[in-house]
Amino acid sequence: MHSSFASELHQTTLNIPRAALRMARSVAYPDLDINHYLARLDQLAAEAQEMVSPADPAAIQAELLADFLFQQYDFRGNVTSYDDPRNSFLNEVLDRRLGIPITLSVVYIAVAERLGLAAYGISMPGHFIVGVRDGDRPYLFDPFHRGGRLSQADCARLIQQTTGYEGPFRQDWLEPAAPRDILVRMLNNLRLIYVQRAAWNEALSVIQHLRLAQPHVPEHLRDIGLVHYQTGSLSRALQWLEAYLRQAPNGPDASTIREGLRPALENWVRLN
């Protein structure tokens, strides 16, 4: 199943919804019908088209689409169970109309693109939003909070609320996020949830997907090793942790891992 996600990553133009659905099928929903959910996005766009006129300026179309999805269709942020893993799977978000900022943004962008709008994701620290270009001017929306329009001051407030950051606002925080980076952020959200729940099999699958998306990031080798260690697969843990140390010999945690490897290796030799 990982191969279908990997094949998406090698497409000339990365289709985020399709890649996200392939990831969902591989990690948690082996019977997921990807074409069914892509057709759901097509249907949402067809319904939205009855309200969103291409004759209107893009800013007006973007606001009407936000109203359609987050007011009329009732897609909304899951404020009561934010860390429910279902919020991170696009199929569940389409079924339940509940999600977190990034998955709700993916829905908005997917529908907007089908309507011909220049929509894109914005991966701010602590909170994900969408932008829509009207000529040279970007308009910002917050899918998690019912699709409301955002000013830069609103964005600064959201970052402060979610991260505690109180320093100066950086304009590069509003730059469009690359499609691969959007998938990586979705996967990192899931990784954190599964690790916190000690759901090691699911965590391992998610980290393997992260490694496909970021093959040159050595920390994924480390994390795979640590998950194997948690499940008692000591020989596999040692293999992956040693691979991490080869790639990142001067990493910030390299000495800590080396110190832990020695007794683990001695114990493994005794047991075998």
Count of distinct strands? 6
Share of helix among residues?
Answer: 55-70%
CATH class of the largest domain: Alpha Beta
Question: What would CATH call the architecture of the largest domain?
Answer: Roll
Strand content: 5-15%
| CATH domain fold name of the largest domain | C8orf32 fold
Structural features, described:
The chain is an alpha+beta fold and 272 residues long. The chain has 2 domains: 2-174, C8orf32 fold; 180-188 and 199-271, Alpha Horseshoe (Serine Threonine Protein Phosphatase 5, Tetratricopeptide repeat), CATH 1.25.40.10. Helix content is 59%, strand content 10%. It has helices at residues 2-9, 16-27, 34-49, 58-72, 90-96, 101-114, 152-163, 179-196, 200-213, 219-230, 234-247, 254-271; strands spanning 76-77, 98-99, 119-124, 127-134, 137-142, 148-150. The strands form 2 sheets. Strands 3-4-5-6 form a 4-stranded antiparallel β-sheet, sandwiched between helices. The longest helix has 18 residues, at 179-196. The chain is elongated, with a radius of gyration of 21 Å. The mean pLDDT is 94.
